[in-house]
Automatic annotation (TrEMBL):
Protein name: Uncharacterized protein
Organism: Paenochrobactrum gallinarii
Domain of life of the native organism: Bacteria
Length: 282
């Protein structure tokens, strides 16, 4: 009696040794299914478990696994239902949870200067990336004449106005927890007297001790360019990838500073005269 070795093959590859006979995975799967369906009662439980796992391995290799097919069907369904979100994640990567939350305020493709609302307060959108978005309170924007005036020194700075605000996300050393920070800043105004006066007037709003406004000692120094003035302006995050919590914390943080936004807005019309009408060619 001749005895031949068996060469298991996925795609009917020929064995290198003529003493072997090719048998496709598909034939083994067919045999195992029939055997397990009709003869499993004769086997020890451990043997049945082993053969069942082996059958699943062969089906995976052939791309015929029921579980795999179900997962592929589910994946296609999820992609159809959440295409915009998944495409956004693929484009922006793992750091996009902050951006996903921020887009809830101003839509998928916001334009510079577009209005948006947070807790019924109006703001003007400037820009967004995976770690921050910048904006102006609408009453600041209006008090400064919108985008119709030129502010010398600030032409290429953020929104081209003397002030800007932004919300940014940071991550702690553990990679999971983090924080949100709301910042307001006076920019690189060329006219020193104008810049110094603007800072002094913003400081003067602090007569209301509830306001979280203060500058560093060097803010009014000649040659200073960027001067931040919000404090107590951080919200902690338990998970920097929880976009729903990020959204809620952004809303709460911005709402916390509405009094500061309004206080600054009240003094800004005093400085509108420092802006010059833009040339139509700009």
């Amino acid at each position: 009696m001749d005895i031949s070795g068996i060469f298991l093959t996925l795609n009917e590859e020929a064995p290198e040794d003529d003493a072997y006979v090719s048998i496709r995975y598909g034939a083994i799967c067919t045999f195992l299914k029939l055997y397990l369906n009709h003869e499993a009662y004769q086997l020890q439980p451990e043997v049945t478990t082993f053969l069942t796992h082996y059958l699943h391995v062969l089906e995976e290799l052939m791309g015929k696994s029921k579980e795999r097919s179900e997962m592929e069907t589910l994946a296609r369904q999820l992609y159809r239902e959440h295409k915009k979100v998944l495409d956004f994640i693929l484009e922006h990567g793992a750091g996009s949870d902050f951006a996903l939350a921020a887009h809830r305020f101003f839509g998928d493709n916001p334009d510079f200067g577009q209005g948006f609302e947070v807790k019924d307060r109006k703001y003007i959108y400037r820009g967004l990336n995976d770690r921050m978005f910048s904006f102006l309170p609408a009453n600041w924007h209006e008090a400064l004449g919108g985008f119709d005036l030129n502010w010398e020194g600030c032409e290429r700075w953020w929104a081209g106005l003397p002030l800007i605000c932004w919300v940014e996300i940071g991550t702690h050393a553990d990679g999971k927890k983090g924080y949100l920070k709301l910042t307001a800043e006076v920019g690189p105004i060329k006219d020193y007297d104008f810049r110094k006066s603007l800072i002094e007037r913003i400081e003067s709003t602090k007569t209301d001790q509830r306001l979280s406004i203060s500058f560093t000692k060097g803010a009014k120094r000649e040659g200073a360019l960027y001067s931040r003035f919000f404090n107590s302006n951080v919200a902690n995050l338990e998970d920097v990838q929880d976009s729903e919590d990020i959204l809620l914390k952004i809303e709460n943080l911005m709402n916390k500073f509405v009094d500061e936004f309004d206080a600054v807005a009240r003094i800004l019309p005093e400085f509108r005269e420092y802006g010059s009408v833009k040339n139509n060619a700009e």
